[in-house]
Amino acid sequence: MALSVREKPLLRELTTLGLGGTALAEAVVRAESDLDELSGFFARSGGRPFVLGGGSNILALDEDSDLVLVSVRNADLPEAPAGNGATLVRAGAGLPLPRLLKFCEETGLSGLEPLAGIPGRVGGAVAMNAGSYGAEMKDLLARVRLWTPDRGLFWVEARDCVFGYRHFEVPSGIGRHLVWEAEFRLACADPSAVRAKAREIHERKKATQPVNARSAGCVFKNPPGKSAGMLLDQAGFKGRRVGNMAFSELHANFLVNLGGGRSAEALELLDTARATVLDRFGERLETEVIILS
Questions:
Q1: Looking at the DSSP assignment, which residues form a beta bridge with residue 29?
Q2: For the chain, what is the radius of gyration of the CA atoms?
């Protein structure tokens, strides 16, 4: 299978927030054999490499950029390797999280239910140590398979990685890499119980978060011991709008594109929110979304 390359992709079409200008090129990697062509692709393109994932945690600027995108799309159904008690599940980085959760519901594997309603892909969830309702990737990850231009594909144990709040770091010396696969250690459970728990969490999110809007999820990290959403709400930012970008009326820490929004409008909202929260509460808000220029 030859590496699929597209010239001049629009980031607004590749991100859930719907913002962003034109990148230099995008390589779509579906099979291990495609990885062999990546180094040559980078050399020919001459831009800055960036592994995009599902684009669900990205605020891309509307100006054209020299970015060279890599989209990992190894989205085959997950596997439960034989001899592990059916609790170790292997999934490609390109698999959408909802499909992984559906597999767990059908096979009776519990642990990932708190991630119900998150629209990203497995690779991005690992790279950002995604979390929700008390669960994080670090709590479930057994090992991760990485690719680098020098070493190719190899496995790294989760215990050898460094995790933080929305932070994942591979052991020193590995350098620039992409996540190709991940293995999760889950618990056996009744399929109906897994399904009911995931559905209950998803319904709670639908009632309090704009899960169906054009959004990049929470835009600010929670300060230690505090809720960024609560601080923004108390500062009057729920529903605050600039042009066609706004903080959600359901949850003040969700930035949504109301249709035709611009990155300049988004950045104005974020800057105003940061300054106001710092002035009123003395808390410095740090962005959780990746601002991609």
A1: 72
A2: 19
Give the end of a domain, one of 72, 97, 128: 72
One-letter amino acid at 185 equals R
**Which residue type does 59 have?**
L
Whether the per-residue pLDDT at 211 is higher than 90: the answer is no
Domain count, the chain: 3
For residues 57, 60, 66, 70, the Cα torsion angle rounded to the nearest 10 degrees is: 30
CB atoms within 10 A of CB 167: 12
Question: For residues 80 and 106, what is the distance between their CA atoms, to the nearest angstrom?
Answer: 13
Are the C-beta atoms of residues 117 and 205 closer than 8 Å to each other?
Answer: yes
Task: Please check whether residues 66 and 27 belong to one and the same domain.
Answer: yes
Q: Is residue 292 part of a domain?
A: no
**What residues pair up with 187 in beta bridges, in sequence order?**
110
80 falls within a domain: no
46-94 tens-digit pLDDT = 899 999 988 989 999 999 999 999 999 998 878 776 555 558 899 999 9
In a domain, 82, yes or no: no
- Classify 75 as helix, strand or coil: coil
In a domain, 236, yes or no: yes
- CATH number, domain at 20? 3.30.43.10
pLDDT of 41 above 60? yes
Last residue of a domain, one of 48, 72, 96: 72
Rounded to whole angstroms, the Cα distance separating 51 from 69 reads: 6
Torsion on CA atoms 108, 199, 179, 210, rounded to nearest 10 = 180
Cβ atoms 227, 281 nearer than 8 A: no
Residue 34, SS3 per DSSP:
helix
What is the mean predicted confidence (pLDDT) over 138-158?
Answer: 95
pLDDT for residue 1 is more than 80: no
Which residues are known to be catalytic? 166, 218, 288
List, as one string, the DSSP characters of 105-144. Answer: HHHTEES-GGGTT---BHHHHHHTT-EETTEEHHHHEEEE
